[in-house]
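User: Okay, second chain of the day. Same drill as before: sequence in, structure tokens out.
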Amino acid sequence: MFSIYDLIKLAGGLGLFLYGMKLMSDGIQKRSGPRFRNALNVLTRNRFSGLIAGVTVTSIIQSSSATTVLLVSLVNAGLVSVKQSIGVIMGANIGTTVTAWLVSLIGFKFSISAVALPALAVSIPLMFSKKESRRDIAEMIIGFALLFMGLDIMKNSVPDLQKNIDALGFLKNFSNESHISVLFFIFIGTLITLVIQSSSATMALTITMAFKGWISFPLAAGMVLGENIGTTITALLAASTLNIRAKQSAGAHFLFNVFGVCWMFFVFFPFLHFIELLIPGAAADPANIPIHLSAFHSAFNICNSFILIWFVPQFCNIVQKLFHEDENEKKRIKKRLKMISSTPLATESNLLNVKQEIGRMARVVHDMLVWVMNATREDLKGVKKIEQRVADFENITDKMRFNISNFLTACMAEGLNEDQASRIKGMHRIANELEHTGDACKSIARLFLIKAEKEHDFHKEAEDELFDYISLVLDFLRYNSDFLNNKIQKISFKHALKMEDEINKRRNLLRKIVKKKLMTGKSDVQGELLFMDITRLLEEMGDYCLNISQEIQRSADF
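Assistant: Same drill. Structure tokens below.
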């Protein structure tokens, strides 16, 4: 008899499986998160290399959700286009089938305790190591052991159907294995995956139920199709806080999987017959179902990718029409950053979002300095408008810096590796330097307004000199901004030093000019002092820009 206690044991086994999978995946991601991010960035140049990248990364980290969440963040940051992301999505769907094969080949073929307990014993010394890399390896091993211990608990908690015919008699309603029954189990698979947010865990549960005779091979295959739909929700939720490109990428994942389930539904039973011909052993025998389900899972995703990979441009056009930009999207500059989730690879995604926000902040500061440059040749009315506009921009940069700092502080609470901690420190400093630059822009605009209101005069060539000097600082600011917005691939600190040195030399030259003008006794003293204050602030902006370049250079994987 299937009791309440058995149900609780089943839920506990599922929880242990999920926790073990999370530990194993987190351990892998902590060691390889930046490398996976770079691999996805580099290997998405065309749909075929993107597919291979998706298969490889997902096979290693054992989580298609982690791959797709990282992917939509790369799309959000502008590092990967929507079209390029579709190939990776296809690969992620194929890569996630590796978990099913592990469960089928190890979890149902060998004594779990013979593997799990020795693995736990090996991991204990590593857990107390001073080296972070060894602790991460221990986390992977413990996760591996707990995953299969959870699977063993699930397997032992689910009774054989033959011994519980009365308690589980409702399943007889689906014994005809019609398309209606399959559709119902597609819905069940989708629902369970939505709730537990893990298609791998749902797959393990499905294999366990089929192995114990609760459901037949066709109905279990229907649940597998539902899991392919349910797993897309994680990326959709992550993209809901990101820009329109990220939404399009997550939407592509959803539509791609739904399309696959639709065409498979119409060829469902012939396809199952093909799997039975392909895999030895009768699928009607519950002992053979784990391998048959794994083969079905892989074959379905491979076929779906093979069909759609030739239509990526058309598929991309459909997604862009369904997910189009609206007015709210255009006002995202004032929106807060939001955490995606709390896994190491999600931390990579979160840091990509911060980098994009810092890039936007750099563009805002750049625009502020452009307005300040225009103030050199405006009358009182024009300077007033510019001063107000720069003040508004400065308020925006203050809010952006505040949001970035809070967001990075939240990231630090998630558990970081050394590389991520170093990058967060660098991002904090860059955001602060950009805020200081924005403050300096506001101060300069205010000085121009004072000059205009008090009707002070600069020396004759001052407007051209300031215009040229601001241009030097603007070039430096643009150089950093281009990197932060992915327009250039790397920063040359040697070039940054050269630009900062040029700014310092120009300031020294302008100081000498002002001193000579003041010594003649014919200059407006207050006007020349304002001129000196402006040049001082511009020189400080050069220092801020150099600090940003230095921080970017220090963090090679920024």
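The chain has 22 helices and no strands.

User: Thanks, on to the next one.
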